[in-house]
Write a structure and sequence with these properties.
globular; mainly alpha
């Protein structure tokens, strides 16, 4: 475990006793944002190392969360946030590959699949009256924009790349 992950695990372990029993529900909203950020980080790390989406059970059983329950809502909202990281990673891969496909195409396909799956979430009935419905609506809009940005980057390089010879580099204009 890296030093930073150890620090996060220690901080969460220090509050875990306060999040047991009735307090788990009482303080869930207070810790929710932090848990979503943690899921985002864990999911991104898992994606770049394993090439797959981090499952809810794997996230919930992470050593970092020892003693703290990860709700389905926090997992889902954290995965929505992960899409922003995947977008930045995808655009970077487009820039590095020069339009040759590969990693950028895989990331785009994975993001599209995730978007399709999340579009099927029924936030009215499965949210149990929680805050997830409102948050999912906001995050779904951002997710769609992220997927579109990666699509535009991939398609732009494919179209513009076909118009320029391989290895072409734009001129750098200096002060004359």
């Amino acid at each position: 475990m890296s030093h930073r992950v150890s620090e996060i695990a220690a901080a969460l372990a220090s509050i875990a006793p306060d999040l047991q029993g009735l307090n788990a529900n009482r303080y869930q909203r207070n810790i929710s944002g932090g848990l979503q950020e943690l899921v985002e980080a864990l999911a991104f790390h898992h994606y770049i190392t394993a090439g797959t989406l981090l499952s809810y059970s794997s996230a919930g059983s992470s050593a970092v969360l020892s003693g703290i329950e990860l709700t389905v809502s926090d997992y889902i909202l954290g995965i929505f946030d992960f899409v922003g990281e995947a977008m930045r990673f995808g655009i970077t891969m487009v820039a590095l590959s020069g339009g040759d496909g590969g990693d950028a195409d895989k990331i785009l396909m994975d993001m599209r699949r995730l978007r399709e799956e999340f579009e099927g979430i029924d936030t009215l009935h499965h949210g149990g009256g929680s805050f997830i419905g409102k948050d999912v609506d906001k995050k779904m809009m951002v997710m769609k924009q992220c997927v579109e940005k990666v699509e535009n980057a991939v398609y732009g390089v494919i179209v513009r790349g076909s118009e320029k010879p391989k290895g072409w580099v734009p001129e750098v204009f200096g002060d004359e």
